[in-house]
Amino acid sequence: MERINWISDIIVVVSPENIETMKTIIEKYGHKRVTVVKGGITRHRSIFNGLKVFAEDEFSCHLLQKPEVVIIHDAVRPFVEEDIVSKVVMAAKEHGAAGAIRPLVSTVIASAADGCLDHSLERARYRASEMPQAFLFDIIYEAYQQCTDYDLDYGTECLHLALKYCKTNAKLVEGTADLWKVTYKRDLYAAESIIKDNLSQQVCVITNVKETLGQVGFLLPESLKSQIKVEAISISLSKNDSRLQNIISEQCYNFVCINDKRCAIQETQELVDMLEKSNIPLLYPVVLILVHLDSSENNSFSIGMEDLTTIKKFARETKKKNILVYGLLIQHKDPLLLQETVNSAAALIMALIKDRSPELIGQLLVA
Amino acid sequence: MERINWISDIIVVVSPENIETMKTIIEKYGHKRVTVVKGGITRHRSIFNGLKVFAEDEFSCHLLQKPEVVIIHDAVRPFVEEDIVSKVVMAAKEHGAAGAIRPLVSTVIASAADGCLDHSLERARYRASEMPQAFLFDIIYEAYQQCTDYDLDYGTECLHLALKYCKTNAKLVEGTADLWKVTYKRDLYAAESIIKDNLSQQVCVITNVKETLGQVGFLLPESLKSQIKVEAISISLSKNDSRLQNIISEQCYNFVCINDKRCAIQETQELVDMLEKSNIPLLYPVVLILVHLDSSENNSFSIGMEDLTTIKKFARETKKKNILVYGLLIQHKDPLLLQETVNSAAALIMALIKDRSPELIGQLLVA
After folding, report:
1. A280 near A301, Cβ under 8 Å?
2. Shortest CA distance to B28 belongs to which of B286, B322, B282, B319?
3. Closest Cβ–Cβ partner in A300, A331, A357 for B351
4. Which of A259, A294, B92, B316 supports an S-S bond with A264, CB 3.0-4.6 Å?
5. % of residues, chain B, pLDDT over 90
6. Which helix (H) or strand (E) holds B100?
7. Where are the alpha helices (DSSP H) in A226-328?
8. What average pLDDT score do residues B37-51 get?
9. Domains along chain B with CATH numbers
10. pLDDT at A364 exceeding the cut of 80
């Protein structure tokens, strides 16, 4: 809601024991338009408390300006898009009330007193009432003032109150599947996967301008392109580059740095500093993969423990900033196998980006 | 359904274009009681086709014996437990029909012709009708024979047909949350996470009987125990051990082998062979983590590329058998840091078990 700039105030209604936690969250993420209000013992009583902030002095240190339209939403529907919020608000302006609906996934039935089927509803005629809903403020506030204690204690549907007490038939707006309610443990799993999916849409591949990187620096972004949107830039990280700044400010959450030095910690630190300043890692972890190239002819080539210790230590430090660092070694002794090795590196990079595993930070994978 | 031994026949109704795929699946997993039947163009027509196998010669090469009770279930509800199937069947025996129900997650509303709210249903009075459902065969078959083309084309609810055409009020049985319908992409994510969760309940830690392993062989299982059920056994893999056989046959999907040799491929192959014979990796991937200990005093210790190549090659081979092999190196030069190193190894093991990433096979992680 903070991201939608035409919303002027945001009231978060929270149970008394969680108010301090909520205030900490609001401060951490720098939310500016949020007022926290104490919840009631039922859904309707909580919503009523939220509405009172605009109408009754006692509920807020500073009375907020009464809005024309108020949106009511559930925090358990975190994937709501601006588009549906906007549609519901426009419909509420015209009809006085509006709410998002979805097709029913299951048939709805009524049971008789003996626990047997009384009748089933024809699925096509009914809809699931979802959130967000929006109302002319005067209508919904009037409805809450008029409604009975029974409504406040046992009801759940705001559209019903607007209809019953203000004779307002809400406009129903077809919503999208992402309005679903995060209810069960499986929904938390789904939410986590959706967020990880959203974070895995784009990767920025940074190559240090060196001739020796030539082939891999070209082949690796190409191989990644079949799976993800790739921004490939060739710069020196020690110089402030505006293209890189742009990519960061466009909310890119994945970076691959290709170097010919084994542990280019110094250069990488510059990128970490830029990311930290950008606030990008505040909400979600950023993935940063350090790719080291090795083209030594020596068959007895080996990874030194010192390198491993260096990257591990670095990764532990950057994790505190919510940046997950992994190492990836690309060997390209045999030019005939180069494409294959690069493809295998791209597969490892995609796995690291998609999994975002905090346990695997500081490990050095080998392609 | 195959796992429930009191079910005598299983009819899988499949759209014509997927019949061959389904037959391949049935053969692959060795299902014995399954008959595949061609689906119709609607849900009800498909169910009717399934029922006809027990009553009409033309629908099956061999007429199956007519059952007393028939269970109807959706393939999109794969997490159904035997307990609820059993409850629904018992209720159907007594009442003629029965079905699982769940509380409504959203309020259900009826819309008027103008797209506005007509009325909302009191959520507490209604239930979502889920699957499985069960019926006395004669009742549901009679209902399908009697019902109209309109029912067959537009209806979705079997309980409704039993009520309408056979005056049978189905008994409603409260179901569990795992009856949910895998409908949207997010449900596939949730299903994947639930399966991975189920596979991450138990790990078998195998130590090769050697004095040098002593401390880690004891500390590692202890550290894992705070996060997962651990079966620790100390055996030589080259000998056929009945405890290991028991653990495998109890569907353990995670194995950790601790060795002091760097790449104990030979011994591990014995375990891979045992797993392959057990059919355990048929349905889900098995995770096999090879833990190598290194206690060399030499500071210039390094991982040879040869070792990496060996484990990678081995992992690629075993992946074909649906066994995911990862390497993990535990360094314990400094006795003071041993507990910390072991804890970090346990965290890596848990991450590998939970993620089951096919891309990271053959990698050597360092604790």
Report:
1. no
2. B282
3. A357
4. A259
5. 76
6. strand B97-103
7. 242-249, 265-278, 305-319
8. 96
9. 10-102+128-180 (3.90.550.10), 194-366 (3.40.50.360)
10. yes
Of B129, B301, B355, the CB nearest to A106: B129
Tell me if A305 and B301 make a contact (CB, 8 A cut-off).
yes
Whether B331 has its CB under 8 Å from any CB of chain A: the answer is: yes
Cβ-defined contact of B157 to A359 (cutoff 8 Å): no
Read off the tokens for A88.
């519901």
Considering only A67-71, A205-209, B287-291, which range has the smallest mean pLDDT?
A205-209
| Residue range A29-35: mean pLDDT, rounded | 93
- Let me know: does B13 contact B37? Beta carbons within 8 Å: yes
Q: CA-to-CA distance for B252 and B275, rounded, in angstroms?
A: 10
Alpha-carbon radius of gyration of chain A: 27
Confidence of residue B212 (pLDDT cuts 50, 70, 90): low
Total residues belonging to chain A: 367
Q: What does the block give as tokens for B232?
A: 């620790």
**What is the phi/psi pair of residue B362, to 5°?**
80, -5
Q: How many CB pairs under 8 A join A and B?
A: 205
In 3-state terms, chain A is what percent helix, strand and coil (to 5)?
Answer: 45, 25, 30
Task: Note whether B172 contacts A: Cβ–Cβ < 8 A.
Answer: yes
Q: What is the chain B residue with the closest CA to A128? A: B108
Q: Which residues of B touch A171 (CB under 8 A)?
A: 115-117
Q: For residue B91, what are the CA distances in angstroms to A20, B126, B168, B174, B175?
A: 50, 20, 12, 12, 13
Q: What's the pLDDT tens digit per position in A197-253?
A: 999 999 999 987 665 566 888 899 999 999 999 999 988 777 778 899 999 999 999
pLDDT in the model for residue A234: 86
The nearest alpha carbon in chain A to B360 belongs to: A348
> B43-52 and B137-146 are packed helices; what angle lies between their axes, rounded to 10 degrees?
130
